[in-house]
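Reproducibility note. Readers wishing to regenerate the assembly model reported in the main text can use the exact inputs given here. Chain order matters: entities are listed in the order in which they were concatenated for prediction.
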Amino acid sequence: MDTVLISEVGPRDGLQSVKATMATAHKHAWIDALAGAGLREIEVGSFVPAKLLPQMADIADVVRHAMTQPGITVMALVPNLRGAETAIVTGLHKITIPVSASEAHSLANVRKTCAQMLDEVRRIVDLRRAQAPQVLVEVGMSTAFGCTLQGAVPEDDVVRLAEALAEAGVDEIGLSDTTGMAQPAQVRRLFQRVRAAIGERTGAAHMHNTRGLGLANCLAAYDVGVRTFDSSQGGLGGCPYAPGASGNVVTEDLVFMFEAMGVHTGVDLEKLVAARTVLAAGLPGEPLYGMTPGAGLTKDFVYADGRTPLDTRLLSTSGACA
Amino acid sequence: MDTVLISEVGPRDGLQSVKATMATAHKHAWIDALAGAGLREIEVGSFVPAKLLPQMADIADVVRHAMTQPGITVMALVPNLRGAETAIVTGLHKITIPVSASEAHSLANVRKTCAQMLDEVRRIVDLRRAQAPQVLVEVGMSTAFGCTLQGAVPEDDVVRLAEALAEAGVDEIGLSDTTGMAQPAQVRRLFQRVRAAIGERTGAAHMHNTRGLGLANCLAAYDVGVRTFDSSQGGLGGCPYAPGASGNVVTEDLVFMFEAMGVHTGVDLEKLVAARTVLAAGLPGEPLYGMTPGAGLTKDFVYADGRTPLDTRLLSTSGACA
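Running the prediction on these inputs yields the following structure tokens for the assembly.
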């Protein structure tokens, strides 16, 4: 029985992409529900100044609360050394740094060139070594499959950047389809090349569903050995072509695909759909995406580990079609 | 450069699943637009008595009009010998017969056992031989990946039925995920087994997006040699868990996936999106699905055959998120 890690990024990637700010108590409840559903790695927010990202103003409190959940890896995004310093004192388990493969995106996103960001990563790794050697450092390589500013991103650039990051001491380097431009053949090729270059430091596939290819791209990554997948409950992050929206792969549908294939995720879909209700309560009126909650589980559905659902219907009323 | 055939089933599978009836003139215009966009096989309707399916009352007229389009295979569904007889006199190119792999579904859908339906197919093939030897006969095997009534459908049953249909003289046997229960590993396994049994008579993958796996399942089928894919413009057929809805794979997203992968479909996405406007005019207020029209094409997008789009934006205003 193969196993994958579903890395739930809704509380960071999702929440930062919606206009409303979810109240802290709701974040606590949502994270508790996600953990209760079996998610084992949760990106609970980002360490960015509150004036830039008010949705993340309570990040230290949210991390502290998440740390009370046993058995989960509590992760947060840090865009720079300052953020890493603030993050590390909370005692969280893992930080993730966004490093753009596209120079144009790097400048637009973090106001640094790729080379400058690489230096920043080195400084963060030095900080980790000196002050918190147990903290894991991941990089999610943004625009690895294309950039809306630059267009195509040379695959050689992606591979070279992965090598430089591995050399800098990063534990895990994933590829992110920030712009929803990835296609399955490219996904396979790029992950194969990166794995050939950096081996077991090859990390997560972070796919977007901007043009409907999210799950096909996840399947493609799985085919070439990727075993960690970023996704967002309800595909939170809204319409992928509205300003600032992210179009994340939907956790519910991703979990269904893997479990239906006999691949163990550890996630209970009934409890996950219950968590969806908690999310909806925290962001009233915010559209949630995904097909599985409303469709329910298939007749005779069995999880990869042999468990059977109590009730295949999932949502007691039909869900939204979106 | 690999090539696939996109078989557009919107005018049949889509239209039969919506409450409203599209006016004949609109059907003409929509089919013209689909053909103009480069679709080379179009399932224009079904030969079912009008009192059972009023949406298909004008089928003979629609076939006649479609036959005026050069370069397309005009196809229609026939559920029985009577329908085949009526279809053949129109001079259409191809008929498709739905044969259920699940006995329960066969009885519910056409009031025949699988064995009785196999006999009906034999009679239709005999008719074709006697009266219209140039007409192609396809079978789409319904519930090949599972049935909402029966549950799991034994893969052996699917393979044996494919063999029997090939022996009966059917030209092309595809597998249809009528209920949206298919998962990628199963799709690969089943198509591989069917191909091993019946070789080049292995036909189309007809996938549904009921739980979000539509394109992942299409990719899986492509991986094992499938080169014909049924899809519906705008995913017409509505909410997959509303009564009678079908949740077809969206043609726009499917074409995007293949072209982005360098696989030739012959479809022009800009013209396809123009056809979407014609569809919308014919069914005002009917929700249309798919991500690509609103997201637009990717920067620097090139079709598999080297063509470049005039304008990557596709829809001049943002499309619906669904």
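We highlight two features of this model. The CA atoms of residues 204 and 280 of chain B lie 27 Å apart. Chain B has twelve helices and eight strands.
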